[in-house]
Each structure stands twice: as structure tokens, then as C-alpha cells.
Amino acid sequence: TPLEIVTGYAAFANGGYKITPYFIDAILDNNGEVVFQETPMTACPECEPEQAAQESEQHQHKIEGQLEAALLREMSSDQNANEHPPENTQKIINGSAFLTEIQIKPLKMKVLPAKRVIEPRVAYIINSILKDVIRLGTGRRARSLGRGDLGGKTGTTNDQKDAWFSGFNQNVVTTTWVGFDQPQTLGTREVGGYAALPIWIDFMKDALAGTPETIQQQPNNLVTLRIDPSNGLRAWPGQPNAIFEIFRAEYAPTETSRASELSHELIDDNENITEQLF
């Protein structure tokens, strides 16, 4: 679903954390008192991993405990259908059972850290790749927004039955989908970049209006190298068509693209050549 897709892209946008979407931020009674306040999972690079896991687990146990207690009370009640629920309580539907008498109060927690699901360096590299989709690829229409902090990806299913665009900066992630309730082709040219991307652009123009561009901090142990685009090896010095790519340091290519060629052209089997790599 679009909600599942945008949740996945959020991990690329926020640096690698799994957040949980929510629709209700708070519930107030008729006196303006808060009876429920959502405490969403928050991407928190500053939080210690152990603390994040512990607090997330405590939060889950707290909610499960409230629901279990309410269910036990419901099962042991006198089933008086005419009895009104106590004041300042809520009904929660759990399947076919109505759980009542849950006193839900604001959760007094500073931050509920989200779980990291992608290594920071991998999230950064994917973020960089998805920015190229807008800078050079199928999402380049989004350059009309005049921002350099956007990444995204078009998507089209077989026979153009679904057209997608998912895109983001560090603070806002949006997915648009175009299709019929009963799947059928949208038309020959109705691919993601034509059917879904313009909707995304119109929305993000307003969503990001007046906000500064975001800059994702580069994690440690990443290196940028000049690469031969034909084979992924290091470019030879002065290679005119070389491009820059980012690598995790331990996976950076060590072989130079033209080294084997030079060994045949310039030296014989009894000589060695040392070529500077940069």
C-alpha cells in the first residue's frame, strides 16, 4: 500500500530508522483535558542503541498491559448492557471485543527512539543514489521545485496498471499512486514519471514551501572515488568519462581500470609498473 511504501522510504530519509505512521496525535475531552497523547517512534541518532531498544520495549509492554487489563475487566463484568461507562474513559475495539474503562493518560517520555534498520552508511549511499534519480533520471521533472535536497524513485507495474512516485527530503516523505480500483491499464505512456510525479510535485511545492534545504551528514568510513562507468573499477588518471561514486571504505575497488591494458601495451612480462591511484 502507499502507506507501507512511504514508511520504507522514510528510513532512507531519516538516516536508517524504522518509524511507525500514526493518524491520531491527541484526544481531548470536552473540558480540553488531554486523555490520550500519541508518543510516536522518533529517529534519534543521539540516543544510545541500548536505551532505544529498552524504551521501545517498555512502551510496547505498557500498551499491551493496558489492553490486557481492560479485556480481563470486560470478561469479568456483570454484562449489564444498560450500564454507562465511567467518566473520562474510552472504548477501544479489538477485533469484535469492546475494551472499556481504560484510563489513557499522556505518556511522560522524552523521546521514544525508533529502531535502526539500515546501517548509516548504506542509508546515506541510497539517499545519494535516489537524489541522482531526480538530478539525472526518471524523476528529473522534480527539478522544477528548485531544491537540491530531494531524492525519489518512479515506479510502473506491467501494462501501466500502477504508476508510482516516492520522494523525500530529510523531513518530509511522500508517496503518490495512480491506478484504478479494479486494475486495468492506465494507458501506454502513463508511467510513474508522467502519471504520478506531477501530483507529487504539486503537493511537495506546498509541503516544503518556506523550509530550508536539509543536509544529511555523511557518516564516517565512506570514501568517494573516480570510477570507470563501464566496469566499476577505479578510473585511470586523466580518464575523461570518469564519474564519482561513494563506497563504504572496506568495499572500495582497488583495481584500476586501465592497469591490465597498460601491462600489455607498455611493459613486458618481466617488468612491473606502479601507477598512482586517487
String of helices and strands: HEEEEHEEEEHEEEHEEH
Shape: globular
State the total count of DSSP E strands: 13
| Largest beta-sheet characterization | 3 strands, antiparallel
Number of helices: 5
- Nearest-integer average pLDDT: 80
How much of the sequence is in beta strands?
A: 15-25%
Low-confidence stretches: 85-109, 263-278
Q: Please identify the structural class as seen in this structure.
A: alpha+beta
Distance between the termini: 45 Å
| Rg measurement, Å | 27 Å
How is the largest sheet built, in terms of strand order?
A: 9-10-11
The helix fraction, in percent, is 25-40%
Structure, explained:
- With 278 residues, the protein is an alpha+beta fold.
- The protein has five helices and 13 strands.
- The two termini are 45 Å apart.
- The relative contact order is 0.11.
